[in-house]
Each structure stands twice: as structure tokens, then as C-alpha cells.
């Protein structure tokens, strides 16, 4: 794709595949002009529900999809993020009645926590997790509205 600075009103970049416009990017957003299919880790292709499991990183339920609904959290059970591509974003919703233990991939860390240590996700809370480096995740809890 050619580089184009989208700054003022009226500036547009047309994204073409094989000479056919598939999207138009402007200062107000991106309009898809044709059928689009995304397979990038940054775009959630599906939503998956998982039952929380285990009490340590090795037996926590493994998250695969970019958007996950975790059920059954009771303050002891957990879920584990994947060893995803750097720059990936995962959304994890805890629909349990208690806190969920959220673990990084094996050998990873979340924020300033120790390697393989969990962080707590409150009941009925959602976190957005960003894979910042080979073994580093940053996760932030979204406020409940």
C-alpha cells in the first residue's frame, strides 16, 4: 500500500486489490466498499466462551480466540493467554461470580508481575490485553458502565 498522510478534510486514500477499490480511508475513518475478510490477530474473527479451569498456569484454560467470555470463575480458577504475535490484542470477559486468575502464556509476564504469575480480573469485568513483546503482556480492566 502506498503511504499517505490523512490529515485534512477531503484527503482520501483508496485501497485497491488487483485494481479494484476495496476500501477508502479518510480523516473520518475507513469505509469498506467491497466484501472484506480479516485474519489479522488484531481483528477478532469470532467470540468464544470458555469455562475457567485449574489453579496454576499449567492447568488454566487456554484462550485461543481474540475475544473470549470466561465462565465459572470462583476466585481460584483461571485462563491463560496464548503465545501470540507481538502487537496482538485480546479481550477477556470474566462472567464468573468471583475473580478470575488470568495468566500470560507459559514463560510470559503480565505488566510488572513475575513470570507465569496471574493477575486478577474482577467478577463481571473485562480486560483488554496487548502483547507488547516476546514474553510481555499489558492488560487493563475496562470500567463497567
Low-confidence stretches: 1-9, 36-45
Work out the strand percent: 35-45%
Side-by-side strand order of the widest sheet: 4-6-8-12-13-10
Alpha-carbon distance between the termini? 39 Å
Give the averaged pLDDT, no decimals: 78
Helix content: under 10%
Number of helices: 0
Radius of gyration over C-alpha positions, nearest whole angstrom:
19 Å
Helix and strand element order: EEEEEEEEEEEEE
| Helix/strand class | mainly beta
Largest sheet: 6 strands, mixed
Taken from the alpha-carbon principal axes, the silhouette is globular
Number of E strands: 13
Could you walk me through the main structural features you see in this protein, from its secondary elements to its overall organization?
Strands 4-6-8-12-13-10 form a 6-stranded mixed β-sheet, with no helix packed on it. The protein has a 4-stranded mixed β-sheet with strand order 5-7-9-11, with no helix packed on it. The radius of gyration is 19 Å and the shape is globular. Residues 1-9 and 36-45 have low confidence and may be disordered. The chain has strands at 12-17, 20-26, 29-32, 47-51, 61-62, 67-71, 78-80, 89-94, 100-103, 109-110, 119-121, 126-133, 136-142. It has no helices and 13 strands. A hairpin with a 2-residue loop joins β2 and β3 (29-32). It starts with 11 loop residues before the first strand and ends with a strand. With 145 residues, it is mostly beta strands.
Amino acid at each position: 500500500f502506498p503511504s499517505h498522510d490523512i490529515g485534512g478534510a477531503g484527503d482520501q486514500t483508496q485501497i485497491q486489490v488487483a485494481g479494484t477499490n476495496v476500501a477508502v480511508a479518510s480523516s473520518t475513518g475507513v469505509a469498506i466498499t467491497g466484501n472484506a475478510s480479516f485474519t489479522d490477530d488484531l481483528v477478532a474473527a469470532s467470540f468464544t466462551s470458555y469455562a475457567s479451569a485449574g489453579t496454576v498456569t499449567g492447568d488454566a484454560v487456554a484462550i485461543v480466540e481474540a475475544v473470549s467470555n470466561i465462565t465459572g470463575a470462583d476466585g481460584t480458577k483461571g485462563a491463560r493467554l496464548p503465545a501470540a504475535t507481538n502487537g496482538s490484542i485480546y479481550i477477556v470477559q470474566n462472567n464468573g461470580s468471583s475473580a478470575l486468575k488470568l495468566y500470560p502464556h507459559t514463560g510470559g509476564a503480565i505488566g510488572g508481575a513475575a513470570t507465569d504469575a496471574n493477575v486478577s480480573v474482577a467478577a463481571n469485568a473485562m480486560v483488554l490485553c496487548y502483547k507488547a513483546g516476546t514474553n510481555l503482556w499489558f492488560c487493563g480492566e475496562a470500567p463497567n458502565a
